[in-house]
Design brief:
With about 80 residues, the chain is mainly alpha-helical. It has three helices and no strands. The radius of gyration is 15 Å and the shape is flat.
Length: about 80
């Protein structure tokens, strides 16, 4: 599989710091955008299909979460 960047601490402290400051759907949108580039670097068809599905499912999850947060905000008002 594709590996990028330097390894972070195993505790994920960098991710926790970001997650406390950024909306979850924004993080998922950024991940989906990043995952879109992974199939280009895939070594075989199975890996290509895996990253393609991960990208699409992450984008769908981000969209659904954003919609839910909008509805939740409207109900709160």
């Amino acid at each position: 599989m594709v590996r990028r960047g330097k390894k972070r601490g195993r505790d994920g402290s960098a991710i926790v710091g970001i997650a406390r400051k950024v909306w979850p759907h924004a993080i998922l949108k950024a991940l989906a955008k990043e995952y879109k580039s992974y199939p280009r670097h895939a070594r075989n068809r199975a890996e290509f299909e895996f990253w393609d599905k991960v990208s699409k499912s992450t984008a769908n999850l981000a969209s659904g979460m954003e919609k839910w947060m909008d509805e939740f905000g409207e109900d709160d008002e």
